[in-house]
Each structure stands twice: as C-alpha cells, then as structure tokens.
Amino acid sequence: MSGYATRGRVVLAAVLAVSVFGALPAAAADAVHGKSVFSSQCGVCHSAAKDGSAIIGPPLFGVVGRRAGSVAGFAYSPAMKSAALTWTNDTLHTFLTAPRKMVDGTKMTFMGVKNPDQLDDLVAYLDTLK
C-alpha cells in the first residue's frame, strides 16, 4: 500500500471520529493536581474549606454556580459587585487567566494562571468544592 493511501485512511478515520464524537477527546483535567495549584497559587488569599472565612479574598467553597460578589460580609470592589457574573467553569477560566482584564477594578491583584494545564486542573478542583 502506498504512503498516500495509508495517510488517506488515517485522515478518513480522524474525520469519521470527529463527525461521530463531535471532536477528538481532550485530556481530562486533574482536580487532584488542581488542589496543589490552589494551595500554591490561591491558598494564601482564599479558603477552600466548607465553613471557611475570608482571608484576603472571599472563601471559594461553592464558588461554581455562585453569583460574583455575593459572599456575605466580604468587602468586594464596586466593579466585582456590579459585574453581573455567575461563576461557571468558563467564567472562572477567563477570570483566572487575567482577573483585571475580565473585571476592571477588581481588588484581586493576582496576575493570573498562565499555564493552561494548571488552569484546567485548578478549575476542575474548584468545581469539586460543593
């Protein structure tokens, strides 16, 4: 069989996989590693405990599905209070990449998670905090 025929079959198999499954599978995020990312990059300012209190930032237990700027007793910036965001995996991905770009005027001084794998893992971990 020629090289073109073999490559053609590989391309055809990939096209069929995409058409049947919608996309080629992506690597799954690792919430266990995300906990480590949280500890090293977020834990100084945020609690992940169920009954955690504010440290420098608000507690993040239950953050997925919560309206931004809504933890009672935490002094959010006016920008965060009026952001009209609900924290989903998508909004967390965007925010945690560059917080001040998404919510200009946030008090959060963190520059963002630049490593996409760490970001995926971190968001997966935050999604476990229920």
Task: Give a short overview.
The protein has 130 residues and is mainly α. It is 45% helix and 0% strand.
List the helices and strands and how they pair.
Elements: H1 3-21, H2 31-41, H3 78-81, H4 89-97, H5 99-102, H6 116-126
Question: What do these coordinates show?
Answer:
It is a single chain. With 130 residues, this protein is mainly alpha-helical. The chain has a single domain (28-126), classed as Cytochrome c-like domain (Cytochrome Bc1 Complex, Chain D, domain 2). It is built from 6 helices and no strands. The chain has helices at residues 3-21, 31-41, 78-81, 89-97, 99-102, 116-126. Helix 2 crosses helix 6 (116-126) and helix 4 packs across helix 6 (116-126). The termini are far apart.
